[in-house]
Write a structure and sequence with these properties.
Order of helices and strands of chain A: HHHEEH
Radius of gyration of chain A: 11 Å
Number of strands of chain B: 10
Shape of chain B: elongated
Number of strands of chain A: 2
Distance between the termini of chain A: 23 Å
Oligomer: heterodimer
CATH class of the largest domain in chain B: Alpha Beta
Helix content of chain A: 40-55%
Number of domains of chain A: 1
CATH architecture of the largest domain in chain B: 3-Layer(aba) Sandwich
Largest interface: A-B, 12 and 11 residues
Number of helices of chain B: 6
CATH class of chain A: Mainly Alpha
Strand order of the largest sheet of chain B: 5-4-3-6-7
Largest sheet of chain A: 2 strands, antiparallel
Number of domains of chain B: 2
Structural class of chain A: mainly alpha
Strand content of chain B: 15-25%
Order of helices and strands of chain B: HEEEHEHEHEEHEHEE
Radius of gyration of chain B: 20 Å
Chain lengths: 77, 216
């Protein structure tokens, strides 16, 4: 997996997406800009984070779930 | 015979929607649709840890910044495993100091390479030949290049094609032989006699009604 390591911890790119969503819910394009990651990686990563129950999607907007919020809070700044 | 016919029919063609895929890559699972809105160069190589492919990967990595300026992503492919791709990319970086910045598909089940006609059995039954698919931001195939196993690709030509296609899209023009950015472009030929006659009055540089050029 590209965003979540086998031990359940977010990878560097996964953490960047979680931090971006912690700052503000948004579309894949907005997360891409905020996280400084290519759009294709963000689309793939958001799919993975959603499958892991860390992110939910409403229309084109993504936001952290309660579980995702806890994980984002635990990340070093 | 039937099998050959079926393969020929399934080959992608210019102007068609690129065949969708979901693939395991060195940057995680990716779908074609993840690239919507960006141009994409999907290219195959025969095998990791081989000499010509290594020179090509270094060359693709070197033009990567120029491609990014043009809104183009790169995606490599071979029938090797992700572990092999990772080991090879690390080896290339260690030996040449060139980091491979783009993902590489591990097409072990040959799903993507079959969908894109990348395996040419008379060249190799197990390896992909050197294919280049240029896919536009609407996921339409705009260019297909095939190179034999023994011939490395020309990065200048790939960049030139991207520039030509994007110039065509932006300006509704065509580009002549050996065109480079800044050169004159070709006005599309007229479809009616009236248009042909009017064409000659429009101030273009015309050899005749069917061959008119202008500076952008």
């Amino acid at each position: 997996m590209a965003c979540i390591s086998p031990d359940g911890k977010p990878t560097v790119s996964g953490a960047r997406m979680l931090r971006a969503l912690k700052a503000k819910a948004g579309s894949a394009e907005e997360v891409s800009q905020q996280a400084g990651l290519p759009l294709f990686r963000v689309r793939s990563g958001l799919r993975e984070l959603a499958q892991a129950g860390l992110v939910s999607q409403k229309g084109e907007k993504y936001q952290l779930s309660a579980k995702g919020g806890e994980l984002a809070d635990s990340l070093p700044a | 015979m039937e099998e050959v016919k079926e393969q020929a029919i399934s080959l992608p063609r210019l102007g068609q929607a690129a065949p969708p895929f979901e693939a395991v890559t060195t940057q995680g699972p990716l779908k074609l649709e993840d690239y919507k809105g960006s141009w994409l160069i999907l290219f195959s190589h025969p095998a990791d840890f081989t000499p010509v492919c290594t020179t090509e990967f270094i060359a693709f990595a070197e033009i990567f910044p120029e491609l990014q300026k043009r809104g183009v992503e790169l995606l490599g492919l071979s029938v090797d495993s992700v572990s092999s791709h990772i080991a090879w990319a690390r080896n290339v970086e260690e030996k040449t100091k060139v980091k491979i910045p783009f993902p590489i598909i591990a097409d072990l089940n040959k799903e993507v390479s079959t969908a894109y006609g990348m395996i040419h059995p008379s060249q190799s039954k197990t390896e992909t030949v050197r294919c280049v698919f240029i896919i536009d931001d609407k996921q339409v195939i705009r260019t297909i290049l095939y190179y034999p196993l023994t011939t490395g690709r020309n990065m200048d030509e790939i960049l030139r094609i991207i520039d030509a296609l994007q110039t065509t899209d932006a300006n509704g023009v065509a580009t002549p032989a050996n065109w480079r950015p800044g050169d004159k472009v070709v006005i599309p030929p007229p479809n009616t006699q009236e248009m042909a006659e009017e064409r000659l009055k429009e101030g273009y540089e015309c050899v005749d009604w069917y061959l008119c050029q202008k500076k952008l």
